[in-house]
Amino acid sequence: MRIQGFVISPFGSNCYVLAESEEPGARAVIVDPGDTAVEPVLDYVAQHRLAVQAIWNTHAHVDHVMGVDVVRDRLGVPAWLHPDDLPVWNEMPTSARMWLNQTVPPLRAPDHLWADGDVVKLGSLSFTVWHTPGHSPGSVCLIGEDIAFTGDTLFAGTIGRTDLPLSDPEAMRRSLQRLQALPDALLIYPGHMGSSTIGRERQTNPFFREA
Predict the structure, then answer these.
(1) Averaged confidence pLDDT in the chain
(2) Does residue 59 carry a pLDDT above 90?
(3) C-alpha–C-alpha distance, residues 184 and 200, integer Å
(4) Based on the structure, what is the number of domains in the chain?
């Protein structure tokens, strides 16, 4: 397995390329392509001759989805999203104007919709979709055997904002309580900042510890 992170959005959000192995030509997915300036990600894919299978979106805020259609057009791959975030997805152009002063076209509809408990595979790797609303209605975490992509639900040392339109602090509390069941050794790759482990967050993250 190989994971490469990129910070391509002005908001400092993380985009990840997850490859099944370190071999050239390995199957891969792109997680949260959050800006139309996604060339560094596409260059990395080309450099390693990765066979990208899909775009996995943890949620639909502008800084996580704005590059989705650029990637779809270049690589011809499907995009996944939880249906509860469709209103956020559809408002992306408005968010881009308001937050970034950028004019971008609306996103095409997602190709597939997550459901809680879905198991998605990348070759020999499997991830279970956990619906973790709070930061947005359709936020999800993608939970693998050794790693998890936690989007803007759980960060290193803090959590995603719950004061945005459609955020829900009580839903976030329940989502964090659910994540408490994960093993300490699980390595998390969040939507912003660096990686961590569930155990480290259990010990040091006041929001996670008090959920």
Answers:
(1) 97
(2) yes
(3) 7
(4) 1
pTM: 0.97
Question: How far apart are the C-alpha atoms of 61 and 43, rounded to whole Å?
Answer: 24
Between strands 187-190 and 196-197, the pairing is antiparallel
Q: Is 73 exposed, middle or buried (0-12, 13-18, 19+ CB in 10 A)?
A: exposed
Residue 76 sits at the vertex; the CA angle it makes with 3 and 103, to the nearest 5 degrees, is 90
- How far does the chain reach from its first CA to its final CA, in angstroms? 32
Is pLDDT at 210 greater than 90 in this prediction?
no
pLDDT one-digit tens code per residue, 121-136: 999 999 999 999 999 9
202 and 155 Cβ atoms separated by less than 8 Å: no
pLDDT band at residue 211 using 50, 70 and 90 as cut-offs: confident
Domain carrying residue 106:
2-209
Which pairing describes strands 147-151 and 140-143: parallel, antiparallel, or unpaired? antiparallel
pLDDT at residue 14, rounded to an integer: 98
CATH number at residue 6: 3.60.15.10
Tell me the C-alpha distance between 64 and 58, whole Å.
8
- Amino acid of residue 3: I
Residues near 180 by Cβ (< 8 Å), separated by ≥ 6? 202, 208, 211
CB 60 within 8 A of CB 86: yes
How many residues can be counted in the chain?
211
Q: Are strands 125-131 and 51-56 parallel, antiparallel or unpaired?
A: unpaired
